[in-house]
Amino acid sequence: MLLQIHKSKIHRATITQANLNYVGSITIDEALLEAANIMDGERVQIVNNNNGERLETYVITGERGSGVICLNGAAARKCEVGDIVIIISYGWMTPEEAKNHKAITVFPTEKNQLA
To answer: Does the pTM of the predicted model rise above 0.85?
Structure first.
């Protein structure tokens, strides 16, 4: 049996853009993705601390060091620029793997930079 386990998260990032006319997804600064071990195209859950919305989408890599956190497509209706979000990734693991797994949490600065 495989369990879906919290793999990593970017905790309390700030939405910098919302682009309704894009083909879906969330664009995230490459430096944040690398620090959180989240890959381009990976499925993530977005939790909006400002309004309680939760949604799932996939990741597009944004420019390194830009601080970009941009919800694209229909997801752009679930947030506003300035909202605080948690971006969570999950992985499938055996119970044995899960026992030894240590989730990664990245705490970006107010401008979505690594501290």
So the answer is: yes
Q: What are 30's two structure tokens?
A: 């490459």
Q: Which residues of the chain have pLDDT under 50?
A: none
Task: Report how far residue 101's alpha carbon sits from residue 113's, in angstroms, rounded to the nearest whole number.
Answer: 26
* Phi, psi (deg, nearest 5) at residue 97: -65, -40
| Catalytic, out of 8, 25, 66, 89 | 25
Instruction: Tell me, yes or no, if 66 is annotated catalytic.
Output: no
Catalytic residue at 90?
Answer: no
Dihedral angle over CA of 12, 17, 18, 20, nearest 10: -150
Tokens (6 digits) for 22: 């894009």
Q: Spell out the domains of the chain, with CATH numbers in brackets.
A: 3-106 (2.40.40.20)
